[in-house]
Design goal:
Elements: H1 2-18, H2 28-31, E1 36-42, E2 49-54, H3 65-68, E3 74-78, E4 83-93, E5 98-104, E6 114-121, E7 124-131, E8 139-150, E9 153-163, E10 171-180, E11 204-209, E12 214-215, E13 223-229, E14 239-247, H4 249-266, E15 283-291, E16 295-298
Parallel strand pairs: 1-15
Antiparallel strand pairs: 1-2, 2-5, 3-4, 3-6, 4-5, 6-7, 8-9, 9-13, 10-11, 10-12, 10-14, 14-15, 14-16
């Protein structure tokens, strides 16, 4: 038996040595060609915000939004009746204690209009269009669930039910707005983030956008039931405002592929996917969404 085991081990070693092959990797720092990343979703009755930044290699140190913001870009938004040049603007993120930069406009978007985006940066111009014509839906019920399961594992969250608009393909994304303080942590980040720029007890607004995109599919016109994981910790009695966004099809496809990319990074058995940009010539998404009538929600218990 001992002789047999020695021969088996020797065979495995020879096999492994015979399969060795040198694989060369490009120098990521020198060979990476940065591309512009553009993200903008228009909402009726709200001024436009278009985020324009430079892309980075997958393996790269952490950076702030200020460091990758594409300064000196010319960003224009137009319809058949008007044109507006968007100017650099920013919002201070009190959860992460940093500025979030974008190109903002003054004229609110109008339901039913078709908008054309033009971004010129370093001699290149990128264009895209979207029409704000998605149906506004009404949430019929919101329910808390202490546990449900998806590809990422078990979670607590909320269940949303709504009546789907019949006759067309609809795409939905969850939105929750909440006031929190620095005792509430983010539920998903690997590094613990604590707000160091707010006083104890000071409340500030956070917006939680669902990563999962839902479609009516074979349930056209029926009541849809969607299980949603939330991004921030909570306590019993915490209040939130919940919406369901109706997205255009191109934006829905982009955010769905973005979620599938995340799944492939976290799970080696999930096949990677390629992002299909909705902006000609570069990577990104320009689209529109219509929010449902808001629903007020109160958490019935602490985080489990």
């Amino acid at each position: 038996m001992l002789r047999y085991n020695i021969l088996l081990i020797a065979f495995v070693v020879i096999l492994l040595l015979g399969c060795q092959k040198e694989v060369g990797f490009k120098n990521i720092a020198t060979d990476f060609e940065a591309a512009l990343f553009i993200e903008g979703i228009l909402y009726p009755d709200e001024p436009p915000q278009i985020y324009v930044s430079n892309s980075l290699p997958f393996i790269n140190e952490k950076v702030t939004p200020q460091e990758i913001f594409a300064r000196n870009a010319m960003v224009e938004l137009s319809t058949d009746t008007y044109s507006e040049r968007l100017e650099p603007d920013s919002i201070f993120d009190k959860f992460r204690c940093r500025w979030s930069l974008f190109y903002g406009g003054q004229i609110p978007a109008v339901y039913g209009e078709t908008y054309h985006l033009s971004v010129t940066y370093q001699g290149q111009t990128y264009t895209s269009s979207t029409t704000i014509n998605q149906p506004k839906v009404d949430i019929t019920d919101v329910e808390y669930t202490p546990e449900f399961f998806d590809i990422y594992g078990g979670h607590d969250g909320v269940i949303i039910r709504l009546k789907d608009t019949p006759g067309i393909r609809n795409y939905y994304r969850f939105q929750m707005d909440r006031m929190i303080d620095n005792t509430r942590l983010h539920a998903h980040v690997l590094d613990v983030i604590t707000s160091t720029c707010t006083d104890d007890g000071e409340e500030f607004l956070v917006r939680d956008l669902g990563r999962t995109i839902f479609s009516d599919g074979q349930l056209d016109g029926k009541t849809l039931e969607m299980y949603l994981e939330v991004s921030f910790e909570y306590l019993e009695g915490d209040e939130a405002t919940i919406y369901m966004q109706s997205l255009d099809s191109k934006s829905a496809a982009f955010f769905r592929e973005l979620d599938e990319q995340l799944q492939s990074i976290l799970n080696p058995f999930v096949e990677p996917v390629f992002l299909h940009s909705s902006i000609e010539g570069t990577l990104g998404v320009f689209g529109s969404a219509v929010r449902s009538t808001p629903i007020q929600f109160i958490y019935p218990q602490d985080n489990p």
